[in-house]
Specification:
- With 443 residues, this protein is an all-alpha fold.
- The protein has a single domain, classed as Up-down Bundle (A middle domain of Talin 1), CATH 1.20.1420.
- The protein is 76% helix and 3% strand.
- The chain has a 3-stranded antiparallel beta sheet. Strands 3-4 form a two-stranded antiparallel sheet.
- Helix 1 packs across helix 8 and helix 5 runs antiparallel to helix 11.
- It is globular.
- The chain starts with 7 loop residues before the first helix and ends with a helix.
Length: 443
Amino acid sequence: MLSRLRHPLAAVSVALLLTVPWIGFFITYGGYGTVHPGENITPITAVLVAGLAILGAAFLLAWAAETAEKDVPQAFAIAVLAVLAVAPEYAVDALYAWEAGTGSTQAANLAVANMTGANRILIGLGWSGIALFTIYRAKRTADPAVEQRSGFLADAVTLDRGISTEITFLLVATVFAFFVPFNGGIGPIDTVLLVGLFLLYLLVVIRGDVDESEEHVGVPAYFQQYPKAQRIAVILFGFAFSGAIIFTAVHPFAEGLEQLGLQYGIPEFFMIQWLAPLASESPELIVVAYLVNKSRSTAGFNALISSKLNQWTLLIGTLAVVYSISAGAIGTLPFDSKQAAEIWITAAQSFFAIAILTNFEISTREAIALLVLFATQVLAEFYVIQTVTEPAATNVSMLILYIYTAVYVALGVGLFLRRRESVQGLIKRTVSNTRSAIGASSK
């Protein structure tokens, strides 16, 4: 990996060089929104060039966040990293929400489909995949976050109890999400509550103390030795540059993947819900894999949980804002019954995943359960849309969504009941942190 190059600046140089071809395309074709696979470049070129740029930017973003841990609370640095890493997902959803504001019903459904797909990928592939990768890596490294236990698939990744705030806020957002479809869309009330919840979370984490962080090596350790002014400049450049690259490159990357998918007969709606979000989530998964590879599993999972929180609050809440600006009046982003079912299954998956983390660990069995439930549901829907004609296909797909929603909720309720003491401790710790933050900010 880039971080293994002998001198830290050599690694940074390689990461920057990976972004150069994309910058060339960006300048040549006139800026954001002008690089279109299939028009001025081929789909495979877009995938390769934009993909390499995303890879390089993801490393720069991770290094900037790690360097920032010297000056700000780790939770806040990770929160900033999470927002920047999923910025492309915000851009894609904002585009559909804007088109919905001009009167496109299909665009409104696509905005919800893309949002729910991204959230489910983050848990179904992200949380589960990174947990399994962490446990696998621990067989060759001394990762203190992994506990090797006797029994069938019993090894587990343990989490820092300092992540209580993120887990509790995510639980609150998840419970609220179950009620969103009953309003017929995402409206002003959802915006106020969800965005307000995210801002309260930021207040809590930014008021935290700057603790002695884990000992860093490589690029972050090198930059942390800089004088404070230079160090802050490096951090800000890393966040700004990598964020700009990721923001501009992911859409062509996703478009290229979509066009390659169409060549193999994959339906467009299915790709917008699954393939495009997979592309937009790739920077974050790269960053987390990098942290795990450095045996910083705790920081990696903190980033994943923080990303889920900001997508499940800020992303949903801002869709109604973009829609209202486009429509020229305060309104509600509408969606059909199929997308209501998509929101319910997404909330149910989140509910089950949070229940898993209430004891601050995720075992191999639990990670596999998340992965299998996610994969089988997506494959089942793909089979239906490929073999069943409309309108029967939509009805069968919704039945699948309802069944999986019930399974997720049942599993989640069971875990919450078994771990109710852990849940109580989780909530008490979060309430204490929130009161301390509010008290500190009022002084």
